## 1
Amino acid sequence: MKVLVIGLGGVTNGGKTTLAEKLKKMLPNCDIISQDDFFKPESEVETDERGFKLYDVLDALYMDEMVKSIRNWMKNPASSGVVTEETQNTCGNLKNTDDVYILIVEGFLLYNYEPLNELWNRRFFLTLPYEECKRRRSTRVYQPADTPGYFDGHVWPMYLKYKNELEENASNVVYLDGTKSQEELLSCVYSDITKELKKLRE
């Protein structure tokens, strides 16, 4: 039994979750772990001098728990409740993948935490320009809600900081333009993953 761990990281509101859900429907034996499920409760998230809750940093997340969840899945993916029958894959190029399980891990801070970086088979990073990201963010409802100035004061600067770190330290990251259509992004990532599956089976 082989496993393929795919990272789908990048900017807030870049389309990560939508892309992950669409891939899950198309790929055999595919599961998703979402970083958003590992946020600490609000009471444990630090507040800066401006009163902003610092959610867009690694300290706001139970990262060790996340790594543990991924490792547990890798040890025994078949017991994770993966559904194999529902894939919409009709092109026939993914036959004989019963022995390969795919995990898509999606989140905004995936590649800046060292223990996670030994787990990836492929890494994708969605980007958006400032204006588009701010526009999308303003249409979303968060719990707790974004306070005035939060995007410019915390969210965007943290995104740039971690993206710069990534560009300096990481290789083999595929950068995706989040302004492209969902279909284009899906097609690009799907074809990349199918190549990885073929390699695994060779």
Note: Confidence is low (pLDDT under 50) at residues 83-92.
## 2
Amino acid sequence: MPTIEDLSIKTKEFKENNFLLIMDLKEFASLVHNNSLTSHLHEVLALTLSKQLTVAILGADKPKPDQDLAITQAQIFTKSYFRFTKKEEDLATLLMELTKAVAQIPYKLKQEEKYMLHSEYFNDFNKDNVKVDKNGNGLSRLWHQMFTMFPLVRLETAETIAAAYPTPSALFKAYEACTTEERRVVGQFGCPSG
């Protein structure tokens, strides 16, 4: 990565902690069938020296029910994250999302450092706090700000969610109305019909 030091451009190497492993559905199914998915991911982590592993499975939009246990074990023991992509276009979208997330890491770390400097959050002490008066004015803005604390949630996304679920209790009721299958889907926020 090019950096500026002493008014000249220098090249520095930085170790990347994030790694994307792309598997086709056939290879993934074989590893699950042979009970070797977790050990395979341990080998990948050892080779790459990465700390965060995302596994993209190309060829299906969700796992089969008999694959859930293997995925859960792999996630627990390797701290990996699985995404299923049906088509190459879905994989390209995932790659774009991951690239953006990795690019935003330095900014988010600076933001986290900024907030860690303030051990307590008082209304007038931190300019980023939302003031809520006794009449409830400011609750809507606070609800929006709560969503933006999640990784990859921008203001537009927070506004869309808050428009659909104007209060925490509305979101909770929609979640309670979800079926068990809908709750199981990783990354799904609320029910599609909610």
Note: The chain is about 50% helix and 15% strand.
## 3
Amino acid sequence: VLQKWVNREISNFDYLIQLNTMAGRTYNDLAQYPVFPWILQDYTSEELDLNNPAVFRDLSKPIGVVNEKNAKTFVLFRYENFEDPLGIIDKFHYGTHYSNAAGVMHYLIRVEPFTTLHIQLQSGRFDCADRQFHSIPATWQARMDNPNDVKELTPEFFYFPEFLENQNGFNLGQLQISKEIVNDVILPKWARSPEDFICKHRKALESEYVSAHLHEWIDLIFGYK
């Protein structure tokens, strides 16, 4: 499979799916759900220029330190200053994981069975609207501003536009400050529709830049780093 990928006989998407499978990740277990990378950092431009390296996330760094400020002022500070009085817990950079069951339900809340699973997790109701997945640009900005949020993506971001739409009409509440009702996911300006977002996002995954740097992220998640 590696050789096929290197020879470009299979796509980046196919290679990541197969890597996830070989690593024991499966759609049948939310705790070991397939994991895909954030690949872009431009969610505000009117047009997405895949020939411009500046639109892509740095795939050589964990998502928690893509923002250099977080790396220096928070992640390293926490590691260097953490001491467990009982000597049981080792020093650590991140208190959460880049992929977990709650994170999968967070992204896929608008489609079953994830809606029901989310409600069960929240003791019979939807979580506070401000904590819902309601905007792709805002979610990326949260990665930049909040060093505690280190979620990567799920495969659905590259093939399943329906998860971005509230087709079942669930009452997901409204944001506290803006009073905006949480409904369909707000898309980047360069996406005209959920289908357009998926199409362009998939093109970004298969772009020359990502093809040349994807191995760096793979080393972080599946490899020796």
Note: The chain has a mean pLDDT of 94.
